[in-house]
Design goal:
This protein is α/β, with parallel strands linked by helices. The protein is built from 36 helices and 18 strands.
Length: 863
């Protein structure tokens, strides 16, 4: 072999390896070096033509990724010219097949899918024949076929030919496995995840992504960037907009550094979609416009039209806020619908059409809106859930505008039921709670409608049922015993180690930026692993009001709700159901948040007396405001009954024992009546024994635990070096009561990584929520870890939320910060009450009443 050609072939090998790893700039450098070397004449013209053609083919993909489709096709045309001059028939056919395959890949990459599939099929036919005829080493031929099948499978998925896509990709995986091509098997598995996503099976998609993720981490980390984009798209589809945004914000800088043009544009497009779901209209518009410009430059009209649709959705939202939107918005929507339809993007075209209908409804043109709505095609089984919810919302709005409230409510009911069926497939608390985001507007419309007609007892009962349909759905699922996931446990242990390292670095005054990045990345990796394994059983039916009344007995339930700026309460007491309007939501929210801030400021143990007096006075003012607005109007209905409260929004941060009407009154806080009914009916004899845990850094903890042990004859105490994570988790399994006195911290960006500090590091909500047999009652004695994070649909997450969702019946926790000494004193009083035979709600009411402002504990669950 000519040494020059041999060196060029080696440069092609390096360039191709860099391309596979998405290191396109490096690949281009090596490939161009190889081409430059082949300008000189050589003895073996056939071999020179072959290597030059392969260099051009690989270069075509790289320049298409970093530049535009035209750049790639130009290089591919040069390769085609070289192929035509190859004298050897067999080699010429082989290279021609590769050219067809690459042309198909490039066309598919920019959304010209059917053209791309045609070219891929030409390449696949040749590769199938060559592989069948080969007698020697077949690995290279198999790899070439795997690449073509994977790309065709991905393209079939994009046009919703799911069976063909699945067949191609499963064959790719089998071939790659048979010929020991692990990276190709992982790439095909990644593509299979995309196909599952297109088919609407998000749990299956996440399982495929998990397999690909592990392989990429081990074999080729450069491929993780594209995987993160597709994972973000899946997160958006189940409502995890904030998590998707963090994923994309993490990968975009690296994509820009590597100049991966299509992936940058798609990442920006999905970042826009996440921002739109998160009500960040400015970011959504900016990112959508940026993506659209890039995609137009790249020659990707289909993707550019999808970006234009996101920008249009922002404009429509803004238009709907006005009194009479411009007719031009309708025209733009219909023009875009036609463009999307011509690009065979049926679901997206339907969305643009629906947006036009919504604007016409807002403009008062109901006849025109109805005519446009008739042209919207029915949603397919594979249509994205947010598209289906938007169509339901549009139908409901039109029905309402024409005076047909019954049809409007029927559309809302059908949409929420459809959303519930999707939720039933999810795994992991984050996924289950996130789906509520897609039904937010539909649920709000339904509640607003029912609220407008709820002055009667019958109306109040209807509102109660609708509130249960729209809130805290993650607590409807029966917990089942979870299995141990070794990989997930290992990743959480890594998060724990990084958490300790980060704390030490902060205490020592060392730089923490690198550790913070590693910590956040490790958290996200652990969260992704948790998504693909569901610990949930069947969904319980929405609570029947008559069953709730029977279970309440002499207690009263207050279910708060908000619509626009109107706060209301549905009161269930004494066999009657009434609705009471309670004034401004904004006023209640402001008072609740100010009270929360005051109680946080009051928490430290040794504040100067004058400061305590000032803060306490402020806290009492806010508590009085809440008491006057939310509870005093209900006093006659409540009498002296024990209370079960279903909060909404900011009311989750209220420690109800601080309010005058609740002082010394047993009060239980629940995410929904459905959740309360399930736990209240559960087996009261479950579990055995008492576990008392004291973490490090609490001055009163050791003495507190010794004191509490005196109230329980069957108590196991773990303190000091014995209070390590693994041992505490094992001890939690199956106990009746678990009391944990440990410093804790709520993680606002990732609620399931809220934590308790034990002897060897953090114990996370994520792992406590997966205890096989959770304790019947959990007391979180020294930290602010109640239902801290409230998602749309009043989906309450956090440490306490994880415990309740996984099967704990009662959780005692603080809704704001609490000092070590008042926490220890409150817990002493609380356990004395339990030992005297009182229920958790009664025992806590007595304990908190001693000093409500310094003991902001709430009883969550069954009470």
């Amino acid at each position: 072999m000519d040494t020059t050609v041999a060196r060029a072939r080696e440069l092609h090998r390096r360039g191709r390896a860099a391309m596979i790893a998405n290191r396109y700039l490096m690949a281009i450098r090596w490939l161009r070096q190889g081409l430059a070397m082949l300008d000189a004449p050589t003895a073996d013209e056939t071999e020179l033509l072959e290597v030059r053609t392969r260099l051009l083919i690989t270069l075509s993909f790289c320049v298409a990724e970093t530049g535009s489709l035209d750049d790639g096709l130009e290089q591919l045309a040069r390769a085609g010219q070289q192929v035509a001059t190859v004298p050897d028939d067999e080699l010429r056919s082989e290279l021609s097949g590769i050219v067809h395959t690459n042309r198909g890949v490039l066309l598919c990459r920019v959304g010209r899918l059917e053209e791309g599939i045609d070219h891929l099929e030409l390449g696949i036919s040749f590769k199938e024949r060559r592989l069948a005829e080969a007698t020697g080493d077949r690995a290279a031929l198999a790899e070439s076929l795997v690449i073509a099948l994977s790309n065709r499978g991905n393209a079939y998925g994009e046009i919703h030919r799911i069976d063909l896509a699945t067949s191609d990709l499963n064959r790719s995986i089998d071939l790659a496995t048979e010929h020991d091509l692990p990276i190709r098997a992982a790439i095909a598995t990644h593509a299979l995840g995309n196909v599952h996503q297109r088919g609407g099976d998000i749990p299956a998609a996440l399982r495929s992504y998990k397999v690909a993720d592990k392989a990429f981490q081990e074999l080729e980390p450069g491929l993780l960037l594209r995987l993160r984009i597709d994972q973000a798209e899946a997160m958006i589809s189940v409502g995890l907009a904030d998590e998707a945004a963090r994923h994309l914000d993490e990968v975009l800088p690296e994509l820009r550094k590597q100049r991966i043009g299509q992936d940058i544009a798609e990442a920006e497009l999905f970042r826009a979609a996440a921002a739109l779901l998160d009500d960040d209209e400015a970011t959504a518009k900016r990112m959508a416009n940026s993506a659209q410009r890039k995609l137009i430059r790249r020659g990707s009209p289909a993707w550019a039209a999808v970006a234009a649709l996101i920008a249009l959705r922002v404009d429509v939202l803004r238009a709907l806020e006005g009194r009479r939107p411009s007719a031009r918005v309708v025209e733009r929507a219909l023009e875009l619908a036609e463009r999307l339809s011509s690009l065979k993007l049926r679901d997206q075209a339907a969305v643009a059409h629906v947006l036009a209908v919504r604007v016409e409804v807002r403009r008062g043109n109901t006849e025109q809106a109805a005519e446009l709505l008739r042209d919207v095609p029915r949603a397919r089984r594979t249509s994205p859930i947010d598209h289906r919810m938007l169509l339901r919302l549009c139908r409901a709005e039109l029905a309402l505008a024409t005076g047909n409230r019954r049809v409007a409510l029927a559309q809302a009911k059908a949409g929420l039921a459809e959303l519930g069926r999707m939720r039933d497939q999810m795994g992991g608390l984050e996924l289950v709670s996130g789906t509520a985001l897609h039904g937010r507007e539909l649920g709000e419309l339904a509640v607003r409608l029912v609220l407008g007609d709820s002055s009667s007892a019958a109306g109040a009962r209807r509102l109660f049922t609708w509130l249960e349909r729209t809130r805290a759905q993650m607590y409807r699922y029966e917990p089942v015993e979870s299995t141990v996931d070794v990989e997930l446990a290992g990743r959480i242990a890594e998060v724990r180690q990084l958490s300790r390292a980060l704390l030490r670095a902060r205490l020592d005054g060392h730089p923490t930026s690198t550790l913070e990045v590693r910590y956040a990345t490790s958290q996200r990796d652990a969260m992704r692993l948790g998504w693909s394994a569901s610990p949930w059983g069947r969904a319980r039916p929405v609570a029947d009001l008559r069953e709730v009344q029977a279970q309440l007995g002499e207690r009263a339930m207050i279910s708060f709700a908000s619509s626009d700026d109107s706060m209301v309460a549905v009161v269930v007491a004494g066999g009657r159901v009434r609705l009471v309007r309670l004034g401004s939501t904004e006023a209640a929210t402001e008072a609740a948040l100010r009270l929360h801030a005051d109680l946080n400021a009051l928490a430290p143990d040794y504040l100067p007396a004058p400061l305590v007096e000032v803060i306490s006075a402020s806290a009492r003012r806010q508590a009085d405001k809440l008491d006057r607005q939310l509870l005093r109007p209900l006093a006659a209905m409540l009498g002296d009954r024990e209370l079960v409260i279903v909060p909404t929004g900011a009311l989750y941060v209220v420690p109800w024992g601080v309010l005058a009407l609740c002082k010394s009154r047993p009060t239980t806080v629940v995410p929904s009546a459905t959740a309360w009914l399930a736990t209240a009916r559960a087996d009261v004899d479950s579990g055995h024994g008492v576990l008392l845990v004291s973490g490090p850094g609490l001055q009163a903890a050791e003495g507190e635990i010794d004191k509490l042990a005196g109230y329980h004859v069957d108590a196991t105490a773990l303190g000091g070096e014995d209070a390590k994570v693994v041992r505490v988790l094992a001890a939690l399994d199956g106990v009746t009561l678990a009391h944990i006195a440990a410093h804790g911290e709520h993680e606002p960006e990732n609620a399931l990584f809220s934590r308790l500090e034990l002897a060897d590091g953090a114990l996370f909500a994520h792992e406590v929520g997966r205890v096989r047999r959770p304790p019947r009652q959990v007391v979180l004695a020294a930290c602010e870890l109640a239902l801290n994070r409230i998602r749309p649909g009043d989906e309450a997450l956090g440490f306490a939320g994880a415990m309740l969702a996984s099967g704990a019946h009662t959780v005692i926790a603080a809704s704001s910060r609490v000092g070590d000494e008042p926490a220890a004193a409150a817990m002493g009083d609380y356990h004395r009450g339990l030992a005297s035979g009182f229920s958790p709600a009664v025992a806590l009411a007595d304990a908190v009443a001693v000093d409500p402002l310094r003991r902001p504990f709430v009883c969550l669950g069954s009470g």
